[in-house]
Amino acid sequence: MKVKEIMKNLEAKHPGENEYLQAVQEVLESIEEVYNENPKYEAAKIVERLVEPDRIFKFRVVWVDDQGNTQVNLGYRVQFNAALGAYKGGLRFHPAVNESMLKFLGFEQIFKNSLTMLPLGGGKGGADFDPMGKSDAEIMRFCQAFVYELWRNIGPDQDSPAGDVGVGGREIGYMYGMYKKLAREHSTGALTGKSFGWGGSLIRPEATGFGAMYYVERMVKQNGDTMKGKKIALSGFGNVAWGAATKALELGAKVVAISGPDGVCEMPKGITKEMIDYMLDMRASNRNKVEDMATKFPKAAKFTAGKKAWSVKCDIACPCAFQNELDEKDAKELIANGVQYVAEVSNMGCQPKAIAAVQKAKVPFAPGKAVNAGGVATSGLEICQNAEHRNWTAEEVDEKLHKIMNDIYDMCVKYGTDAKGNINYVKGANIAGFMRVADAMLAQGII
């Protein structure tokens, strides 16, 4: 495999799709050595098949707002690779959603799902719909219109969407209700992230954040250290950051910063349980302002407009919001402030130059496809519960989640450790995820 040649061809076929091309290049550079050692991969054109989606659905979504005006959005579903099982991946509702973004997310999802060792293929979808400022009735009508266009192409044994940015329990509920009406199916894993009581799994809302902190805990232990007293900076204040803050507190760490589009909230004494609970109200308000935390808790939180979470001195930095949110300048600021660990919790949360700076400074860095795999892992566990027509206890789900994250960490170490004992978590995650998918593709023939 010649990475430069493959990337040149991809760029010619998909000009301007920067996020997608960035994601592909990162993986190809990591797996190049392993790939070239196995001539069967080259003969079967595994990489050439892997980097292109199986199919992309693009559709118009028409809905009516509260003023009676007709609105039109674009919806998508990218089904990327089903070698390991039915397609699985979230739905993102955000005005910046486009085909390139969803192809990057779907490509990443292939390897993330592979790392969980569950029978899940890669997929992603969403729409350029902005839920901010919309009423519940408007969000319901949009979700119903979106599923009306997509429902024939999803199902528990075909493709199972979940939530992502802009899509939480409320949105999944509206989409699931419409899917059931159209498909006449019940107790189904056609969508995951459902509320407990009608098909949802306990721990699912917290799962991405919980899993991330389980992974980070192993990184810290690898260095003979402990989570107790560690200062953590998180970007965002949605479900992912909320789950991470909850588990970090439980593990004895201190969350000293959360951020939003408007700025950063610094909490010198660490976030409290009451403040973590309030993060859910902040997300539900659709205001998208982290300043609300400082307004609610003026003695415990200080808001600074226009600043990122990385401006706050911390031991552990965890991007939890959006792709490429942490740039080279942020990385250098973190390093200067003595950061000890950086772990992506958002998908591709760090720009390539930021990752290079962190790794050059000998700061352990872990990629999103490994760190945030707890979300899709628990979605997979939700499908299992739906198939059994039962619910597991919170303790059962958490135990399985913890084991999956430990296993992912062990795989990253196995494939990412060099002859000198140095661990490259990015390389380890990419190789471990790739090997399982590539071997399945070989076994199933040229299809």
List keywords for this structure.
447 residues, single chain, alpha/beta, 12 strands, 15% strand
Low-confidence residue ranges: none
Alpha-beta classification: alpha/beta
Instruction: Kindly report the oligomeric state of this protein.
Output: single chain
- The tally of beta strands, per DSSP, is 12
- Secondary-structure element series: HHHHEEEHEHEHHEHEEHHEEHEHEHHHH
In the sheet with the most strands, the strands line up as: 9-8-7-6-10-11-12
The amount of beta strand, in percent, is: 15-25%
Helical content (DSSP H or I, runs of 4+): 40-55%
Rounded to the nearest angstrom, the radius of gyration is 21 Å
* Number of helical segments with 4 or more residues: 17
* Major sheet: 7 strands, mixed
- Please report the distance between the alpha carbons of the first and last residues: 20 Å
Shape designation: globular
* Average predicted confidence as pLDDT: 96
Describe this protein's structure.
The protein is of the alpha/beta class and 447 residues long. It has helices spanning 3-13, 18-36, 39-43, 46-50, 99-115, 136-150, 169-183, 207-222, 239-250, 273-284, 291-296, 328-336, 352-360, 368-371, 373-388, 394-416, 425-443, and strands at 55-64, 70-81, 86-93, 120-127, 159-162, 231-234, 254-260, 263-266, 302-305, 316-318, 341-343, 365-366. The protein contains 17 helices and twelve strands. It has a seven-stranded mixed beta sheet with strand order 9-8-7-6-10-11-12. It has a five-stranded mixed beta sheet with strand order 1-2-4-3-5, sandwiched between helices. Strand 3, helix 5 and strand 4 (120-127) form a beta-alpha-beta unit. The relative contact order is 0.12.
